[in-house]
Design brief:
Layout: E1 2-5, E2 11-16, E3 20-24, E4 30-35, E5 41-45, E6 48-52, E7 58-62, E8 68-69
Parallel strand pairs: 2-6
Antiparallel strand pairs: 1-4, 2-3, 4-7, 5-6, 7-8
Amino acid sequence: MQFSLQTDTPTLAFFEPTGQQYELDPGDPVLVKFFGGEDGEVRWFKGAIVIIAPTDGYTRAWDSDGDEIDIGPESGDETD
């Protein structure tokens, strides 16, 4: 599954289970992909978004320039 995150206010994205954080700038989209599972999740809170990797899977993300966002060593296989 893949989806885009875009906010209208500065928002902090938390990637779980790695615990990495990424500041989402207003109007600047981030592409997020779940690999290897069906049950990944996104939770929205005021000023924060939590992206939870699928069970037995992982998450990867890219900024609007196409550069991969470092979300930690458990974020996936480099060959994907």
